[in-house]
Design a protein that fits this description.
Helix content is about 50%, strand content about 20%. By secondary structure, the chain is an alpha/beta fold. Strand 6, helix 8 (about 185-195) and strand 7 (about 200) form a beta-alpha-beta unit. It starts with 7 loop residues before the first helix and ends in a 10-residue tail after the last helix. Bound molecules: ligand C2E and calcium ion (3 copies). This is EAL domain-containing protein.
Length: about 280
């Protein structure tokens, strides 16, 4: 809380100092996290509403530090971006997710798709297409098994080189998803300019779909638009049965959220994958 009066300034600077200290501490801890094996991927199911089958999973990064405990990605991903550490972390994420998908494909879930988050900074500092090619080859995966989730921030920065990168990724054959759709400044513009396969409707829309007629109308319009563009729709943040029913009625392709399944370790997700696909 904001302190008042004569001591206000003091309190303020002390808080700032504390924050800066935590940042520095967090930053040096983050530097060691890959080597010290402190990262883990959790997987959250994306389900086709009609069949109830898991058609894709989103890989979500978890950092367990021995002293700091579990640090939320919302805290350490921005820090990793600022410091450039996102490059080695991103490489670890893609490879680990690739190896896990390879195992699930080998177990007969050959149509399962793995969605991996990429952050804005990775597009500038890393040769993403090369990294993707290496991962697919290393894991013997077909390109359409991998879906890369991008945010609008990633597309905004350096639009020209990003466009070239996305075209290369498209040529490789991986799927491109636009994350947090509807929250940015120019979602529609991005949809028009970039070769997007999938739209992820932001969870702030899902949260209101059952309680606000306006939000429901917007979601319906997004789904219809996606249909005419030949783009798949994923709704994220599904927390209630009512939301699920509405999204199913709109023929949303995939639903994701706590109501369907939380992000979980691979061993917990495996039994939920159901019977293997027909060969
Ligand atoms: P995101 O990509 O938008 O991921 C969705 C977030 O919503 C995840 O938080 C997920 O656990 C959470 N979530 C899932 N279902 C529900 C629900 O029903 N209700 C609510 N309220 N939340 C739900 P998480 O795992 O804490 O990740 C936060 C953000 O960190 C992600 O947002 C993504 O931007 C970033 N992130 C996570 N893993 C990675 C990664 O490997 N690489 C990069 N670059 N970013 C990552
Ligand atoms: Ca995501
Ligand atoms: Ca999202
Ligand atoms: Ca987000």
């Amino acid at each position: 809380a904001k302190a008042e009066g004569r001591n206000g300034f003091q309190c303020y600077t002390r808080d700032m100092g504390l924050q800066a200290l935590q940042r520095v501490e967090l930053q040096s801890a983050l530097r060691l996290a890959v080597e010290h094996d402190q990262f883990e991927l959790h997987y959250q199911p994306q389900v086709a509403p009609e069949s109830g089958r898991i058609v894709a999973v989103e890989a979500l990064l978890r950092w367990r530090h021995p002293v700091l405990g579990n640090v939320s990605p919302d805290r350490f991903i921005p820090l990793a971006e600022e410091t450039g550490l996102i490059a080695p972390i991103g490489r670890w994420v893609l490879r680990s997710a690739g190896r896990q998908l390879q195992a699930w494909h080998a177990a007969g879930h050959t149509r399962l798709v793995m969605a991996v988050n990429l952050s804005a900074r990775q597009f500038i500092t890393q040769d993403i297409p090369q990294l993707v090619r290496e991962t697919l080859e290393l894991c013997g995966l077909p390109p359409q098994a991998l879906e890369l989730e991008l945010t609008e921030t990633a597309l905004m920065h350096n639009a020209e080189s990003v466009h070239a990168t996305l075209s290369t990724l498209k040529a490789i054959g991986v799927l491109l998803a636009l994350d947090d759709f509807g929250t940015g400044y120019s979602s529609l513009n991005h949809l028009r300019r970039f070769p997007i396969d999938t739209i992820k409707i932001d969870k702030s829309f899902t949260a209101e779909i059952a309680t606000s007629d306006d939000t429901a109308a917007i979601v319906r319009a997004i789904v219809e638009m996606a249909g005419s563009l030949g783009v798949e729709i994923v709704a994220e943040g599904v927390e209630h049965e009512q939301q699920l029913r509405l999204l199913a009625a709109l023929h949303c392709h995939r639903v994701q959220g706590y109501h369907i399944g939380r992000p979980m370790p691979a061993a917990e997700l495996a039994p939920l994958l159901g019977v293997p696909d027909e060969p």
